[in-house]
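Justification of computing resources. Each target in the renewal requires a structure prediction run like the one illustrated here; the chain below, 352 residues long, is used simply to show the kind of job we budget for.
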Amino acid sequence: MTGNGTAAMMTQASPSPRIDWVDYAKGICIVMVVMMHSVLGVEIAAGQTGYMHYLVEFARPFRMPDFFLLSGLFLAVVIDRDWRTYLDRKVVHFAYFYVLWVTIQFGFKAPAFAAEQGWAHVGLMYLESFIEPFGTLWFIYLLPIFFVVTKATKRLPPAAIWIVAAALEMTHLSTGWTVIDEFAARFVYFYSGYLFASKVFALSERARARPRWALAGLALWAIVNAAIVYDGCSTWPVFSLVLGFAGACAIIVIGTLLAKQQWLNGLRFCGEHSIVIYLAFFLPMVIARVSLLKFAPFLGVGTISLLVTIAGVVGALAIWRLALRTGARFLFERPDAFWIAPKKRAVLVAAE
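Resulting C-alpha coordinates:
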Protein backbone atom coordinates (compact mmCIF):
# COMPACT_ATOMS: atom_id res chain seq x y z
CA MET A 1 0.00 0.00 0.00
CA THR A 2 1.33 3.35 -0.95
CA GLY A 3 1.84 6.27 1.36
CA ASN A 4 -0.97 8.33 -0.17
CA GLY A 5 -3.54 5.85 1.10
CA THR A 6 -4.13 3.71 -1.97
CA ALA A 7 -3.11 0.12 -2.51
CA ALA A 8 -0.45 -1.83 -4.22
CA MET A 9 -2.35 -4.63 -2.45
CA MET A 10 -1.47 -6.62 0.62
CA THR A 11 1.24 -9.22 0.32
CA GLN A 12 3.37 -8.48 3.35
CA ALA A 13 3.22 -10.50 6.56
CA SER A 14 1.91 -7.67 8.71
CA PRO A 15 -0.54 -4.86 8.08
CA SER A 16 0.79 -1.57 6.73
CA PRO A 17 0.34 1.80 8.42
CA ARG A 18 -3.15 3.26 8.41
CA ILE A 19 -4.71 4.15 5.07
CA ASP A 20 -6.06 7.69 4.98
CA TRP A 21 -9.19 7.16 2.89
CA VAL A 22 -10.16 4.05 4.86
CA ASP A 23 -10.13 6.09 8.06
CA TYR A 24 -12.23 8.81 6.42
CA ALA A 25 -14.72 6.19 5.22
CA LYS A 26 -14.86 4.58 8.66
CA GLY A 27 -15.34 8.01 10.18
CA ILE A 28 -18.34 8.65 7.95
CA CYS A 29 -19.75 5.24 8.86
CA ILE A 30 -19.43 5.62 12.63
CA VAL A 31 -20.95 9.10 12.54
CA MET A 32 -23.88 7.68 10.56
CA VAL A 33 -24.32 4.90 13.12
CA VAL A 34 -24.35 7.35 16.03
CA MET A 35 -26.70 9.57 14.04
CA MET A 36 -29.18 6.77 13.49
CA HIS A 37 -29.39 5.85 17.16
CA SER A 38 -29.48 9.49 18.21
CA VAL A 39 -32.16 10.59 15.77
CA LEU A 40 -34.44 7.60 16.28
CA GLY A 41 -34.07 7.85 20.06
CA VAL A 42 -34.99 11.53 20.07
CA GLU A 43 -37.92 10.98 17.73
CA ILE A 44 -39.33 8.13 19.81
CA ALA A 45 -39.00 10.17 23.01
CA ALA A 46 -40.50 13.27 21.41
CA GLY A 47 -43.21 11.46 19.49
CA GLN A 48 -42.43 13.31 16.26
CA THR A 49 -39.86 13.43 13.48
CA GLY A 50 -37.45 16.18 12.47
CA TYR A 51 -35.33 17.07 9.47
CA MET A 52 -32.54 14.69 10.51
CA HIS A 53 -34.92 11.80 9.91
CA TYR A 54 -34.55 12.20 6.15
CA LEU A 55 -30.76 11.92 6.34
CA VAL A 56 -31.03 8.77 8.44
CA GLU A 57 -33.42 7.24 5.91
CA PHE A 58 -31.15 8.24 3.01
CA ALA A 59 -28.24 6.40 4.65
CA ARG A 60 -30.20 3.32 5.69
CA PRO A 61 -29.43 1.18 2.58
CA PHE A 62 -25.64 1.55 2.89
CA ARG A 63 -24.80 2.59 6.47
CA MET A 64 -24.02 -0.90 7.82
CA PRO A 65 -23.08 -2.54 4.48
CA ASP A 66 -20.20 -0.10 4.14
CA PHE A 67 -19.05 -0.66 7.72
CA PHE A 68 -18.96 -4.42 7.19
CA LEU A 69 -17.28 -4.15 3.80
CA LEU A 70 -14.52 -2.02 5.32
CA SER A 71 -14.20 -4.50 8.19
CA GLY A 72 -13.36 -7.29 5.73
CA LEU A 73 -11.03 -5.20 3.60
CA PHE A 74 -7.73 -6.23 5.19
CA LEU A 75 -8.65 -9.79 6.11
CA ALA A 76 -6.45 -11.23 3.34
CA VAL A 77 -3.40 -10.00 5.27
CA VAL A 78 -4.15 -12.15 8.33
CA ILE A 79 -6.46 -14.96 7.29
CA ASP A 80 -3.60 -17.46 6.89
CA ARG A 81 -2.39 -17.02 10.46
CA ASP A 82 -2.53 -20.08 12.70
CA TRP A 83 -5.90 -20.60 14.37
CA ARG A 84 -4.68 -19.66 17.83
CA THR A 85 -3.39 -16.26 16.74
CA TYR A 86 -6.35 -15.70 14.45
CA LEU A 87 -8.89 -16.45 17.19
CA ASP A 88 -7.01 -14.23 19.60
CA ARG A 89 -7.10 -11.24 17.23
CA LYS A 90 -10.50 -11.81 15.68
CA VAL A 91 -12.60 -13.48 18.38
CA VAL A 92 -11.16 -12.99 21.86
CA HIS A 93 -10.40 -9.36 21.01
CA PHE A 94 -14.03 -8.49 20.31
CA ALA A 95 -15.42 -10.89 22.92
CA TYR A 96 -13.52 -9.04 25.65
CA PHE A 97 -15.00 -5.69 24.68
CA TYR A 98 -18.47 -7.12 24.19
CA VAL A 99 -18.58 -8.71 27.65
CA LEU A 100 -17.12 -5.60 29.27
CA TRP A 101 -19.38 -3.07 27.61
CA VAL A 102 -22.57 -5.11 27.76
CA THR A 103 -21.95 -5.27 31.51
CA ILE A 104 -21.40 -1.50 31.65
CA GLN A 105 -24.57 -0.83 29.68
CA PHE A 106 -26.54 -3.15 31.94
CA GLY A 107 -25.17 -1.31 34.95
CA PHE A 108 -26.79 1.88 33.70
CA LYS A 109 -30.04 0.33 32.49
CA ALA A 110 -30.64 -2.33 35.15
CA PRO A 111 -32.52 -0.07 37.62
CA ALA A 112 -35.06 0.87 34.96
CA PHE A 113 -35.46 -2.74 33.87
CA ALA A 114 -35.84 -3.84 37.50
CA ALA A 115 -38.49 -1.22 38.17
CA GLU A 116 -40.57 -2.68 35.35
CA GLN A 117 -40.08 -6.44 35.78
CA GLY A 118 -37.91 -7.11 38.83
CA TRP A 119 -34.26 -7.93 39.41
CA ALA A 120 -34.67 -11.61 38.60
CA HIS A 121 -35.74 -10.67 35.10
CA VAL A 122 -32.74 -8.32 34.82
CA GLY A 123 -30.45 -11.26 35.56
CA LEU A 124 -32.12 -13.32 32.84
CA MET A 125 -31.81 -10.43 30.39
CA TYR A 126 -28.09 -10.17 31.14
CA LEU A 127 -27.54 -13.88 30.52
CA GLU A 128 -29.62 -13.69 27.36
CA SER A 129 -27.36 -10.90 26.04
CA PHE A 130 -24.69 -13.54 25.40
CA ILE A 131 -27.04 -15.27 22.97
CA GLU A 132 -29.07 -12.32 21.72
CA PRO A 133 -26.78 -9.27 21.31
CA PHE A 134 -27.71 -6.36 23.53
CA GLY A 135 -28.61 -2.95 22.18
CA THR A 136 -26.02 -1.19 20.04
CA LEU A 137 -23.34 -3.84 20.58
CA TRP A 138 -24.53 -6.35 17.99
CA PHE A 139 -21.88 -5.21 15.47
CA ILE A 140 -18.91 -6.39 17.57
CA TYR A 141 -20.85 -9.56 18.48
CA LEU A 142 -21.29 -10.42 14.81
CA LEU A 143 -17.81 -9.53 13.52
CA PRO A 144 -16.04 -12.52 15.16
CA ILE A 145 -18.61 -14.84 13.61
CA PHE A 146 -17.86 -13.38 10.19
CA PHE A 147 -14.12 -13.75 10.74
CA VAL A 148 -14.44 -17.40 11.78
CA VAL A 149 -16.85 -18.34 8.98
CA THR A 150 -14.61 -16.72 6.34
CA LYS A 151 -11.48 -18.55 7.52
CA ALA A 152 -13.33 -21.85 7.97
CA THR A 153 -14.66 -21.70 4.40
CA LYS A 154 -11.44 -20.48 2.80
CA ARG A 155 -10.96 -23.70 0.83
CA LEU A 156 -14.46 -23.56 -0.66
CA PRO A 157 -15.10 -21.85 -4.01
CA PRO A 158 -15.35 -18.10 -3.26
CA ALA A 159 -17.91 -17.55 -6.01
CA ALA A 160 -20.24 -20.11 -4.46
CA ILE A 161 -19.93 -18.53 -1.01
CA TRP A 162 -20.59 -15.06 -2.44
CA ILE A 163 -23.69 -16.24 -4.34
CA VAL A 164 -25.10 -17.90 -1.22
CA ALA A 165 -24.34 -14.79 0.84
CA ALA A 166 -26.01 -12.53 -1.73
CA ALA A 167 -29.05 -14.80 -1.83
CA LEU A 168 -29.27 -14.67 1.97
CA GLU A 169 -29.23 -10.87 1.88
CA MET A 170 -32.12 -10.80 -0.55
CA THR A 171 -34.28 -13.09 1.58
CA HIS A 172 -34.61 -10.30 4.19
CA LEU A 173 -34.73 -13.02 6.80
CA SER A 174 -36.70 -12.10 9.92
CA THR A 175 -36.55 -14.81 12.56
CA GLY A 176 -36.44 -12.38 15.47
CA TRP A 177 -32.91 -13.51 16.37
CA THR A 178 -30.39 -10.76 15.71
CA VAL A 179 -27.41 -13.00 14.94
CA ILE A 180 -29.31 -15.05 12.36
CA ASP A 181 -31.04 -12.10 10.71
CA GLU A 182 -28.03 -9.79 10.64
CA PHE A 183 -25.72 -12.57 9.45
CA ALA A 184 -28.03 -13.13 6.51
CA ALA A 185 -28.29 -9.41 5.81
CA ARG A 186 -24.62 -8.41 6.24
CA PHE A 187 -22.24 -11.27 5.52
CA VAL A 188 -22.21 -10.63 1.77
CA TYR A 189 -20.73 -7.18 2.37
CA PHE A 190 -18.05 -8.38 4.78
CA TYR A 191 -17.10 -11.23 2.44
CA SER A 192 -17.03 -8.85 -0.51
CA GLY A 193 -14.60 -6.60 1.34
CA TYR A 194 -12.33 -9.62 1.77
CA LEU A 195 -12.85 -11.08 -1.69
CA PHE A 196 -12.76 -7.88 -3.74
CA ALA A 197 -10.24 -5.85 -1.73
CA SER A 198 -8.05 -5.22 -4.77
CA LYS A 199 -11.06 -3.85 -6.69
CA VAL A 200 -11.98 -1.59 -3.78
CA PHE A 201 -8.47 -0.13 -3.75
CA ALA A 202 -8.61 0.23 -7.53
CA LEU A 203 -11.86 2.21 -7.17
CA SER A 204 -10.13 4.51 -4.70
CA GLU A 205 -7.20 4.96 -7.11
CA ARG A 206 -9.54 5.91 -9.94
CA ALA A 207 -11.45 8.39 -7.77
CA ARG A 208 -8.19 9.99 -6.64
CA ALA A 209 -6.94 10.25 -10.22
CA ARG A 210 -10.23 11.57 -11.68
CA PRO A 211 -11.95 13.65 -8.98
CA ARG A 212 -14.34 15.43 -11.37
CA TRP A 213 -15.68 12.14 -12.69
CA ALA A 214 -15.90 10.89 -9.13
CA LEU A 215 -17.97 13.91 -8.08
CA ALA A 216 -20.28 13.43 -11.07
CA GLY A 217 -20.75 9.79 -10.13
CA LEU A 218 -21.51 10.74 -6.53
CA ALA A 219 -24.14 13.24 -7.64
CA LEU A 220 -25.85 10.62 -9.81
CA TRP A 221 -25.71 8.06 -7.00
CA ALA A 222 -27.20 10.47 -4.48
CA ILE A 223 -30.13 11.25 -6.76
CA VAL A 224 -30.85 7.60 -7.53
CA ASN A 225 -30.44 6.46 -3.93
CA ALA A 226 -32.74 9.20 -2.65
CA ALA A 227 -35.36 8.47 -5.30
CA ILE A 228 -35.44 4.75 -4.51
CA VAL A 229 -35.42 5.27 -0.74
CA TYR A 230 -38.21 7.81 -0.71
CA ASP A 231 -40.21 5.79 -3.21
CA GLY A 232 -40.23 2.96 -0.67
CA CYS A 233 -38.40 0.44 -2.87
CA SER A 234 -35.06 0.29 -1.07
CA THR A 235 -35.93 -2.85 0.88
CA TRP A 236 -37.02 -4.86 -2.14
CA PRO A 237 -34.87 -7.90 -3.02
CA VAL A 238 -32.07 -7.03 -5.45
CA PHE A 239 -32.69 -3.32 -4.84
CA SER A 240 -31.39 -3.61 -1.27
CA LEU A 241 -28.26 -5.47 -2.41
CA VAL A 242 -27.50 -3.04 -5.22
CA LEU A 243 -28.09 0.01 -3.03
CA GLY A 244 -25.89 -1.47 -0.31
CA PHE A 245 -22.95 -1.92 -2.66
CA ALA A 246 -23.55 1.35 -4.49
CA GLY A 247 -23.62 3.26 -1.22
CA ALA A 248 -20.51 1.50 0.04
CA CYS A 249 -18.68 2.47 -3.15
CA ALA A 250 -19.91 6.04 -2.75
CA ILE A 251 -18.55 6.28 0.80
CA ILE A 252 -15.22 4.88 -0.40
CA VAL A 253 -15.09 7.55 -3.11
CA ILE A 254 -16.06 10.31 -0.66
CA GLY A 255 -13.41 9.11 1.76
CA THR A 256 -10.83 9.13 -1.02
CA LEU A 257 -11.70 12.67 -2.14
CA LEU A 258 -11.61 13.97 1.42
CA ALA A 259 -8.25 12.28 1.95
CA LYS A 260 -6.90 13.76 -1.27
CA GLN A 261 -7.78 17.28 -0.11
CA GLN A 262 -7.12 16.61 3.58
CA TRP A 263 -10.51 18.11 4.45
CA LEU A 264 -12.57 17.35 7.58
CA ASN A 265 -9.71 15.71 9.44
CA GLY A 266 -12.07 15.24 12.37
CA LEU A 267 -13.78 12.53 10.34
CA ARG A 268 -10.46 10.80 9.82
CA PHE A 269 -9.81 10.92 13.57
CA CYS A 270 -13.25 9.39 14.19
CA GLY A 271 -12.44 6.64 11.72
CA GLU A 272 -9.14 5.89 13.45
CA HIS A 273 -11.08 5.48 16.70
CA SER A 274 -14.35 4.14 15.32
CA ILE A 275 -14.56 1.23 17.76
CA VAL A 276 -13.90 3.58 20.68
CA ILE A 277 -16.87 5.68 19.58
CA TYR A 278 -18.99 2.60 18.94
CA LEU A 279 -18.40 1.25 22.44
CA ALA A 280 -18.93 4.45 24.42
CA PHE A 281 -21.34 6.71 22.54
CA PHE A 282 -24.49 5.37 24.22
CA LEU A 283 -23.92 7.18 27.52
CA PRO A 284 -23.31 10.76 26.27
CA MET A 285 -26.03 10.22 23.69
CA VAL A 286 -28.63 9.36 26.34
CA ILE A 287 -27.54 12.17 28.65
CA ALA A 288 -27.73 14.72 25.82
CA ARG A 289 -31.10 13.44 24.64
CA VAL A 290 -32.74 13.56 28.06
CA SER A 291 -31.22 16.96 28.88
CA LEU A 292 -32.09 18.68 25.62
CA LEU A 293 -35.64 17.33 25.46
CA LYS A 294 -36.21 18.48 29.04
CA PHE A 295 -34.50 21.86 29.03
CA ALA A 296 -34.41 22.94 25.37
CA PRO A 297 -37.45 21.53 23.57
CA PHE A 298 -37.81 24.85 21.75
CA LEU A 299 -34.84 23.86 19.55
CA GLY A 300 -37.02 21.39 17.71
CA VAL A 301 -36.62 17.67 17.13
CA GLY A 302 -34.29 18.02 14.16
CA THR A 303 -31.79 20.32 15.86
CA ILE A 304 -31.91 18.31 19.09
CA SER A 305 -31.18 15.17 17.07
CA LEU A 306 -28.18 16.86 15.47
CA LEU A 307 -26.84 18.03 18.84
CA VAL A 308 -27.35 14.59 20.37
CA THR A 309 -25.38 13.06 17.49
CA ILE A 310 -22.50 15.46 18.08
CA ALA A 311 -22.64 14.79 21.82
CA GLY A 312 -22.52 11.04 21.20
CA VAL A 313 -19.39 11.25 19.06
CA VAL A 314 -17.53 13.90 21.06
CA GLY A 315 -18.63 12.43 24.38
CA ALA A 316 -17.35 8.97 23.48
CA LEU A 317 -13.95 10.37 22.56
CA ALA A 318 -13.92 12.35 25.81
CA ILE A 319 -14.64 9.18 27.80
CA TRP A 320 -11.76 7.47 26.00
CA ARG A 321 -9.34 10.29 26.79
CA LEU A 322 -10.49 10.34 30.41
CA ALA A 323 -10.00 6.58 30.67
CA LEU A 324 -6.43 6.87 29.39
CA ARG A 325 -5.62 9.59 31.90
CA THR A 326 -7.19 7.93 34.94
CA GLY A 327 -5.76 4.45 34.61
CA ALA A 328 -8.91 2.92 33.14
CA ARG A 329 -7.25 1.86 29.90
CA PHE A 330 -8.88 -1.57 30.22
CA LEU A 331 -12.08 0.03 28.94
CA PHE A 332 -10.50 0.44 25.49
CA GLU A 333 -7.37 -1.72 25.57
CA ARG A 334 -7.38 -5.46 26.15
CA PRO A 335 -5.29 -6.34 29.23
CA ASP A 336 -2.47 -8.88 28.98
CA ALA A 337 -4.49 -11.47 30.91
CA PHE A 338 -7.01 -11.69 28.07
CA TRP A 339 -4.55 -12.59 25.30
CA ILE A 340 -4.34 -16.23 24.26
CA ALA A 341 -1.56 -15.72 21.70
CA PRO A 342 1.72 -13.77 21.85
CA LYS A 343 0.85 -10.11 22.17
CA LYS A 344 1.72 -7.76 19.37
CA ARG A 345 2.11 -4.03 19.68
CA ALA A 346 -1.52 -2.85 19.54
CA VAL A 347 -3.15 0.54 19.58
CA LEU A 348 -6.45 0.74 21.45
CA VAL A 349 -9.12 -1.50 20.02
CA ALA A 350 -8.39 -1.10 16.35
CA ALA A 351 -9.17 -4.38 14.63
CA GLU A 352 -6.16 -5.78 12.85
